[in-house]
Write a sequence for this structure.
């Protein structure tokens, strides 16, 4: 420790000495001290006498001495702090407290293959500091950025522990892969899921094309640059950050209880057949009695599936330090998250990461480092278990929402209630006793499936991800730097899944065997990058910096191995007992049902050349030109290479002389404009080749040429082969072109900051799978088949101020608008329909991509009220209004949208080709406006902050039951508002048959506005260093935090923030079939710095 | 060390800076073959051939209402109703010759062109392989390619009429336009079948076509063309015109005459390769020996009386019976490999290859045509040995009534046709009064399809088909045996058909008499009406009836033609709706009348609207299917 203090002291002396040497001679000597807000001296702050060329810097104790006129003014500045001016007013001893600047213009931002002063940036980028992210205690850094990144829409793809986020930068640009490119410490192509937020120094998001263009063919959806913590010169600093917390579900769906359920089922029966239901046909009489006579309210499946007080914890220890020659940062972090749903099989995510970053100067020239080497190494190990929540048929959430409350979870003896337990009872003559049996459909105990391995409930994935980067920088002459970087990733994973015999439960049927599957995978990829940068010496105020570079990236080697076996109950080895013993080896020697597979992944390469030229003149006018030339193995020879140029320019108006008059309130104003092109190559490989698919054991091209009754698909001649694609040799890059106009401004002594951007992003030659033209006889290929436009405005406002000595506060508000529109689809009809049966089995598709509309907009019928009586229907018919033939009171009054006098649900055209269908655009899952709010207060070591985020103007399609084929599914309580007679409802139709238009038409009935605003985190902390000055810590902050405290919304479903496409296409969104619920978490944590 | 690191970087950089386009060359690993190199050996051609046949598996192994035309043709005929649950609208639309969506029939359209594409690939690339010393094998495989192309094209045009005729994997602009079926498509079909006949051998190899199979299908295709397009009327007169042929390998003749068609069929008969099974019931899975044994084990609670009098050696699963029997010429063969997630090993994904469909390797008709029983009456003891299914497309009252009338035509000499109860379950009487009608079923006739209905055993638990017990080692590949464990062949051409076609073409009754004799039906002289009835009884629920009706009606037959009248006879039949046995409902057409819908469409289906749109004018909608006309659109009669 002593050694490092000595180093620090020495360094300070050197700087002081250098600065003192330029000092001139003056009459009055002014002495002073520069401190930070905590009272620590600031070493090396610059002290300038305003209006002169004289100045000084502070020494090791924060002290300075200058000669200045007694009525003069001093300007004190230091990187990372707000610059301050003080009047000397004849004083000879002045104490200055510099305020830390959260968003200092002197800050540098990361721009891809380099850094740049924030005030010189000409593109639209947003930076979030690692500290800001870490403060919010999220497992994934993206979640912490939800409230602070205008124009970047971040939604959880699932709220289960450890799940990733869907990120749309400036709207969805494609119906293919629309996620941004992640670049972690200069290595492109990772993701943020495995990175502990405490390891992050900063995240920079490149939103406009000009900023992202340096990443060329992968940057069409924007770029997210992640910089992890690097070593710092100075004494070794040890930081511990940790938190414990407890999560719970905070909003529960209100499902019908047993009595309400029976009422609605009776009404269904009466409305469809004129008879009430004989419940004993479906449910054992004893259960009916229990409900009707004993008042049993039935099983609340949701409550039974909750995992109360799910434990959350997060610990990280970081070490940083170094000398001017050698610096390092090391960290170990652990994150453990338990899910709030899944009871005994609750989902979980546990992650350990180790990161070692260091750099070493091998050769030092006089005033610069000539040769530097370094490395970034990270190792992540994670274990996770998920609860099935995909669509309608692979989801416990959907299953428990639809399960009848009449099914008991446990029998009277406390054992799991299974199908066989209340199967038919027989009288002595062997005849079944009526009313003792469950109906197959009505019986479902999802808890049985959960506890016995249904839908992979007994399963775990483990993975180890290792990334190692080595780099070398050679600076032969000052300002000319050659940097070479080599990265190698090694990922491995293992998965195991166990199933036990079980009685029928929805979706899985009776299972009479034990099953196990195991898989393991290994994959590697590597990349090498070389750049040459030259910062030219300043010539007449012109500063020019040039960079050229080259990279090569390879996803070369991988292997996957998987095997499974199943064995009938009774035939398993005695060694097979439970999950712990469920390994292939312990199963059976009987391999007749075993599968074995092994395959590589396809290789992929990307070769690139790129360059950037930046120029500024006196930091007043500035411009940047970049170009990238990318070649990708995904495309055919001749279609591989693409050029992606960009231009951007800025003008700092506030540096102009004519702006002197506004100096008092306008500190800084820069306007900027940028234009550029990026590409997207994320499509399946070999679209240009006529590939042959050969079926393995279970492909779709085998055939049984045998009379045997027990033939599987193994071996010739049962194995088939066929051409599986219509090759498209011309398929090539998707290009995203973007124009951005914006300004950055700071007002009122930099207390108020404003950033504004307007953009228009056009995705051209959009990569889509062509609709299948049947006569071609096989799979269609990707084509460059459409254009999409995104337009919007982003505004970010910040306010930082200090009142008195002890109180400071900051407020940040940002909002963004986006309008998404498809402008071309290269097929005849101009639209692409989504998949059918998404909302319920047997329903038409509900979302579409269509020219002139937003991607994935909702398509269906609309209705204006409910027919209240027959008179109303007759009058409407008389008046020529379109009415369905079978309309009766209680039915929806469907809108004749195209006004042709007929209600037509079928998507059809008449002989002239006119659309006769009355379905139309009824909603849009994409928000019009997103909003983020951040608030922070500091008072004498006490800190308080609130972060909130919201989205407005979008809709959600919701269905928690398969309404068009399963009338016995449970309802949520909104059904209690249905029409039951004249005047009872004008919005919810009567209960009708599963095939009836009221139910079966995809319509506004299933759609809701989903505007919301969420208070994401509220934090209250106190640094005990303020109370206990003598403690051995630099910081001893303890805090409490609430996450997801309040959601303001009118949405009646579980959560209006729906990032899931419910098993539909990847470009669909806003479909809620009952998703894993978001949780409210209370945390207690500590940040300790030694 | 420093030096070492430095030089490593230099080498690395130097290599990379010289990178060029070659470094971006890759070969597929997972799919490991492209058309440039495949097929390269005989086994590859066999694999192509297998994949060509496999399309049939997908047609018969997926949801019958979306992709099984053989099922459609029964539902559209007078043999079946739509029935099923309230929400089963596709099948009801089909039964009324309407549509519930303008793409309702797209799946078959896609599948059949898929089969054609695979056959074309097989035909085009066959000589990429060195066949030296193996020309017989080459010719057999090429012949099978032609055969399957002809067969898929036949089904395609029978469903959709004038369509693009695709005879190459390279689709030219010219090929995209639809062509006249009568003068362009049928000559190609017959030429393909003639090539197949010439090239293939006579060996019977399970599941493969051979020369005799081709001869039988030549007759079927020719008879449809002559009857429907040429309106040849009664063919026994020998008046049907010859059809022009197109020259290609194995097909040198300029035309094919009725005499040649007859000669082909006679060759099949003379070969002795096929015969009628002694017992009609041997053809169907309900006659399996496991069930037979239960009928004879003395326990009266589970004795299925209908097969008790059979000889055990005639049971479905005995050698020479059932799958692979001597009466089969051609059939779809299913295997023990059905799954929810074809193409994906862990069963999570439904997306395998191009046409993969959950359960595709099972005969899903057994589920589709299974009894629609659930609730209290789902007790399998009530319906033993028949299983629950979706109960869609249940047999019509017309079939039962017409059959009964035929049996009692001569009041002095009534007879009992074994095929009637061999094909249909008479639910009220056969289940001892324990069958109850289901609340959500809309058009129950009281009959069910015995030929395909899933069959269970008392020895098995729950809804598990008898296949589960065929082999002690046998384990289902689907979690849900009720839906996935049905592996009986679906017959596409039985020897009985060869015999009945011969009588119809020649007027000689002796062939038909063999069929009648087996059924216990009095032998009759030839008359067209006799042939028509015999075909209806013999092939009920085998996908034959509708196209027979059409060829006996002729194109543009109007509302008075054979098919229109037969279909219209469904109107007024009494059916049970939503379990109300006490107050049956008269069957009525949902938009106009069956006769009108048939006359308007000639029995063709609507071409998928999205394909019409995608093909910019090359594909035109069929007559009678203007979606703007409400008569063409599904109407919910029962909700």
């Amino acid at each position: 420790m002593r050694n490092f203090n000595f180093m620090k002291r020495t360094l300070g002396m050197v700087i002081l000495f250098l600065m003192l040497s330029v000092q001139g001679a003056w009459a009055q000597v002014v002495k002073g001290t520069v401190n930070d807000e905590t009272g620590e001296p600031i070493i090396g702050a610059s002290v300038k006498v305003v209006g002169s060329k004289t100045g000084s810097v502070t020494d090791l104790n924060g002290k300075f001495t200058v000669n200045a006129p007694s009525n003069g003014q001093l300007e004190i500045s230091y990187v990372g702090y707000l610059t301050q001016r003080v009047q000397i007013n004849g004083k000879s001893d002045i104490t200055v407290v510099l305020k830390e600047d959260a968003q200092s213009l002197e800050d540098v931002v990361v721009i891809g293959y380099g850094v740049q002063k924030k005030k010189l940036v000409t593109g639209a980028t947003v930076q979030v500091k690692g500290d800001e992210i870490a403060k919010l205690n999220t497992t994934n850094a993206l979640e912490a950025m939800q409230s602070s990144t205008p124009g970047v829409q971040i939604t959880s793809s699932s709220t289960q522990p450890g799940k990733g986020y869907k990120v749309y930068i400036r709207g969805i640009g494609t119906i293919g892969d629309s996620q941004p490119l992640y670049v972690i410490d200069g290595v492109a192509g990772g993701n943020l899921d495995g990175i502990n937020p405490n390891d992050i120094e900063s995240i920079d998001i490149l939103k406009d094309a000009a900023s992202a263009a340096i990443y060329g063919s992968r940057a069409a959806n924007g770029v997210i640059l992640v910089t992890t913590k690097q070593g710092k010169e100075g004494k070794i600093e040890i930081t511990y950050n940790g938190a414990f917390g407890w999560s719970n579900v905070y909003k529960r769906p209100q499902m019908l209880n047993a009595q309400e359920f029976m009422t609605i089922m009776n009404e269904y029966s009466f409305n469809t057949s004129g008879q009430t239901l004989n419940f004993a046909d479906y449910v054992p009489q004893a259960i009916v009695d229990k409900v009707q006579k004993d008042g049993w309210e039935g099983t609340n499946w949701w409550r039974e599936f909750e995992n109360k007080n799910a434990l959350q914890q997060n610990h990280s220890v970081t070490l940083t330090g170094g000398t001017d020659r050698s610096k390092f940062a090391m960290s170990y972090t652990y994150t453990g998250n338990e899910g709030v749903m899944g009871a005994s099989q609750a989902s979980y995510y546990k992650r350990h990461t180790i990161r070692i970053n260091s750099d070493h100067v091998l050769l030092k020239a006089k005033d610069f480092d000539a040769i530097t080497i370094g490395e970034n190494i990270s190792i992540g190990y994670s274990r996770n278990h998920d609860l099935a929540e995909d669509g309608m048929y692979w989801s416990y959430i959907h299953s428990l929402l639809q399960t009848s409350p009449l099914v008991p979870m446990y029998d009277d003896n406390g054992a799991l209630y299974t199908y066989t337990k209340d199967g038919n009872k027989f009288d002595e003559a062997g005849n079944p006793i009526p009313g003792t049996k469950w109906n197959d459909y009505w019986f479902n105990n999802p808890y049985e499936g959960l506890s016995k391995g249904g839908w992979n409930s007994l399963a775990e994935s483990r993975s180890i991800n290792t990334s190692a980067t080595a780099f070398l920088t050679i600076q032969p002459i000052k300002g000319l730097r050659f940097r070479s970087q080599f990265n190698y990733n090694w990922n491995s994973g293992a998965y195991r899944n166990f199933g036990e015999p079980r009685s029928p439960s929805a979706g899985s049927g009776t299972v009479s065997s034990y099953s196990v599957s195991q898989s393991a995978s290994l994959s590697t990829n590597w990349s090498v990058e070389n750049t040459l940068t030259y910062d030219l010496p300043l010539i007449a105020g012109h500063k020019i910096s040039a960079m050229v570079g080259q990279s090569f990236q390879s996803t070369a080697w991988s292997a996957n191995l998987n095997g499974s076996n199943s064995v009938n109950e009774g035939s398993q080895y005695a060694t097979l007992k439970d999950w712990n013993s469920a390994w292939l080896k312990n199963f059976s020697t009987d391999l007749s049902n075993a599968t074995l597979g092994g395959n590589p992944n396809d290789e992929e390469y990307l070769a690139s050349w790129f360059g950037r030229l930046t120029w500024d003149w006196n930091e007043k006018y500035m411009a940047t030109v970049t170009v990238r030339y990318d070649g990708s193995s995904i495309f055919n020879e001749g279609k591989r290479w693409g050029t992606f140029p960009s231009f951007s320019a800025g003008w700092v108006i506030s540096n102009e002389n004519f702006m002197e008059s506004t100096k008092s309130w306008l500190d800084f104003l820069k306007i900027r404009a940028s234009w550029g092109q990026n590409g997207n190559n994320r499509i399946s490989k070999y679209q240009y080749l006529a590939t042959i698919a050969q079926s393995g054991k279970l492909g779709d091209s085998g055939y049984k040429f045998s009379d045997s009754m027990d033939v599987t698909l193994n071996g010739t001649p049962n194995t088939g082969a066929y051409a599986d694609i219509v090759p498209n040799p011309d398929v090539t890059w998707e290009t995203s072109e973007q124009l951005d106009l914006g300004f950055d401004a700071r007002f009122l002594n930099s207390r108020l900051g404003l950033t504004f951007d307007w953009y228009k992003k056009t995705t051209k030659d959009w990569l889509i799978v062509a609709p299948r033209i049947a006569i071609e006889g096989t799979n269609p290929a990707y084509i460059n088949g459409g254009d999409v436009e995104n337009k919007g405005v982003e505004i970010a406002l910040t306010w930082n101020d200090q009142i008195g000595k002890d109180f400071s506060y900051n407020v940040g508000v940002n909002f963004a608008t986006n309008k998404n529109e498809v402008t071309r689809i290269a097929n005849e009809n101009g639209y692409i329909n989504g998949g059918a049966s998404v909302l319920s089995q047997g329903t038409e598709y509900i979302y579409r991509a269509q020219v002139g509309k937003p991607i994935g907009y909702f398509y269906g019928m609309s209705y204006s009220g409910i027919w209240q009586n027959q008179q109303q229907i007759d009058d409407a018919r008389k008046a020529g209004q379109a009415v369905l033939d079978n309309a009766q009171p209680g039915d929806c009054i469907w809108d004749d949208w195209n006004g042709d006098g007929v209600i037509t649900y079928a998507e059809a055209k008449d002989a002239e080709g006119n659309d006769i269908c009355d379905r139309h655009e009824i909603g849009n899952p994409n928000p019009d406006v997103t909003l983020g709010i951040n608030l922070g207060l500091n008072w004498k070591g006490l800190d308080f902050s609130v972060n909130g985020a919201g989205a407005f103007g979008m809709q959600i399609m919701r269905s928690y039951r398969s309404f068009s084929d399963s009338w016995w599914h449970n309802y949520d309580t909104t059904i209690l508002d249905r029409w039951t007679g004249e005047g009872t409802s004008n919005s919810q139709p009567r209960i009708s048959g599963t095939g009836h238009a009221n139910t079966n038409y995809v319509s506004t009935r299933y759609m809701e506005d989903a505007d919301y605003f969420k208070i994401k985190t509220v934090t209250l902390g106190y640094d005990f260093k303020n109370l206990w000055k003598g403690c051995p810590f630099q910081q001893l902050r303890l805090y409490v935090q609430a996450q997801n405290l309040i959601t303001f919304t009118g949405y009646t479903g579980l959560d209006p923030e729906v990032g899931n496409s419910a098993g539909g296409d990847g470009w669909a969104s806003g479909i809620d079939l009952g998703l894993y619920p978001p949780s409210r978490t209370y945390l207690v944590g500590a940040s300790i710095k030694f | 060390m420093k030096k070492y690191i430095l030089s490593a970087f230099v080498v690395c950089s130097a290599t990379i800076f010289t990178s060029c386009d070659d470094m971006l060359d890759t070969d597929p690993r997972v799919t490991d073959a492209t058309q440039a190199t495949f097929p390269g050996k005989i086994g590859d051609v066999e694999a192509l051939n297998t994949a060509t046949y496999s399309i049939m598996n997908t047609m018969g192994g997926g949801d019958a209402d979306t992709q099984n035309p053989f099922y459609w043709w029964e539902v559209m005929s007078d043999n079946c109703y739509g029935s099923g649950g309230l929400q089963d609208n596709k099948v009801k639309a089909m039964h009324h010759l309407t549509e519930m969506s303008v793409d309702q029939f797209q799946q078959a359209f896609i599948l059949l062109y898929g089969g054609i594409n695979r056959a074309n690939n097989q035909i085009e690339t066959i000589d990429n392989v060195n066949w030296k010393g193996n020309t017989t094998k080459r010719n057999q495989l090429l012949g099978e390619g032609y055969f399957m192309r002809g067969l898929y094209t036949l089904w395609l045009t029978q469903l959709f009429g004038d369509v693009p005729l695709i005879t190459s994997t390279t689709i030219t602009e010219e090929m995209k336009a639809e062509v006249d079926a009568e003068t362009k498509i049928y000559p190609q079909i017959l030429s393909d079948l003639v090539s197949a006949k010439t090239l293939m051998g006579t060996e019977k190899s399970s599941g493969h076509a051979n020369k005799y199979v081709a001869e039988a299908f030549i007759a079927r295709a020719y008879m449809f063309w002559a009857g429907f397009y040429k309106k040849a009327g009664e063919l026994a007169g020998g008046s049907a015109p010859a059809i022009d042929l197109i020259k290609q390998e194995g097909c040198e003749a300029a035309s094919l005459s009725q005499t040649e068609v007859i000669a082909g069929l006679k060759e099949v008969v003379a070969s002795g390769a096929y015969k009628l099974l002694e017992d009609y019931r041997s053809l169907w899975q309900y006659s399996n020996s496991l069930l037979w044994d239960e009928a004879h084990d003395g326990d009266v609670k589970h004795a299925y009386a209908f097969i008790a009098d059979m000889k055990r050696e005639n049971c479905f699963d005995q050698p020479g019976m059932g799958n692979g029997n001597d009466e089969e010429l051609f059939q779809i063969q299913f295997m023990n490999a059905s799954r929810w997630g074809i193409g994906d090993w862990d069963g999570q994904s439904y997306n395998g290859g191009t046409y993969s469909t959950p359960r595709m390797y099972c005969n899903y008709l057994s589920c589709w045509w299974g009894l629609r029983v659930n609730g209290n009456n789902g007790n399998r003891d009530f319906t033993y040995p028949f299983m629950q299914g979706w109960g869609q497309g249940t047999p019509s009252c017309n079939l039962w009534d017409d059959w009964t009338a035929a049996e009692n035509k001569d009041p002095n000499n009534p007879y009992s046709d074994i095929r009637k109860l061999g094909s249909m379950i008479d639910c009220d009487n056969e289940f001892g009064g324990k069958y109850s009608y289901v609340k959500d079923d809309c058009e129950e006739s009281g009959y069910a399809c015995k030929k395909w209905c899933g069959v269970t055993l008392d020895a098995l638990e729950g809804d598990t088909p008898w296949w589960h017990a065929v082999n002690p080692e046998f384990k289902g590949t689907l979690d849900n045996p009720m839906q996935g464990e049905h592996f009986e062949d679906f017959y596409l051409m039985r020897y009985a058909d060869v015999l009945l076609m011969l009588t119809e073409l020649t007027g000689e009754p002796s062939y038909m008499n063999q069929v009648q004799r087996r059924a216990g039906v009095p032998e009759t002289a030839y008359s067209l009406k006799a042939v028509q009835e015999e075909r209806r009884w013999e092939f009920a629920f085998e996908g034959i009836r509708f196209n027979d009706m059409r060829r006996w009606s002729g194109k543009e037959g109007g509302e008075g033609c054979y098919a229109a009248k037969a279909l219209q006879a469904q109107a007024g039949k009494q059916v049970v709706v939503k379990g109300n046995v006490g107050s049956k409902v008269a069957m009525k057409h949902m938009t106009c009348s069956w006769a009108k819908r048939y006359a308007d469409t000639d029995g063709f289906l609507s071409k998928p609207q999205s394909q019409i749109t995608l093909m910019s004018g090359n594909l035109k909608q069929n007559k009678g299917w203007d979606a703007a006309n409400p008569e063409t659109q599904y109407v919910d009669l029962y909700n």
Confidence is low (pLDDT under 50) at residues 1-26 of chain A.
